[in-house]
What does this fold into?
Amino acid sequence: MEQFIFGFQIVGERPGDVCQWKEVTCNCEGEVEWFTSIEDLCNENGTLQLELLPCSMRGLTMRLNALKGTIQLADLPEKMEVVDIYNSTLTGRLELDSLPARMQEVLLRHNEFTGEISLEHLPKGLNVLSLSGNQLRGTVCLTSLPVRLHSLDLSENTFLWWLTGPYTTAGSHTKH
It folds into this structure.
């Protein structure tokens, strides 16, 4: 965990044992499972190196931090279930088909991600996908979404929707 936050300029003091940090939740074996930072982790722009996250990680929440750069979703630990990175200036493409199989919630709202996305190979257990407020574009096929997905927010992007099903005419298009 110390390597993951090494690039940040930390505001405030941190105890030597990472499991004692208020932002960290550890399991009974002392392995980091969750990291939460709301607002004040860093006071200068930091970058995320997901490959440095401990393999025991199940959740990462970073909201209202001054984060920049790109992220590679393929670098998330296999046990990761929730990633919530809100209101930073992260850029680049989102390769959603690289998400870990255990992923349940992906919230990458209000960043600066660009390009096209594919929703055709999402993890089967995904419940929530929120990518609102980015600069994503292109055509999105909504016919292969995971059965468990109950919340999908792609607003504030530029997509051309492709809808088929019992309540639509084949090939219906909607631009949002």
